[in-house]
Amino acid sequence: MSGKRSYWHVYNRMRRHYIATGLMPERVNLLAEFADLEPADVDEGIAEFELSIGLRKRGAEPDGKAKTETD
Q: Which among 38, 51, 55, 60 is placed 20 to 30 Å from 66, CA to CA?
């Protein structure tokens, strides 16, 4: 297995942060932390996380907002 990161790393980072704090990390912070990934890959990880907590339906835009670090 290669050491290259993917959108699953973003998803896992968001999951761990959400479990620990109850808040979603900000996209700008994720982009900085995962600067080695394309922004589209970071967005894919965010979308996958939002699907898992019910903020987004597959094939649709988010229909709700979770609390973020700046809320």
A: 38
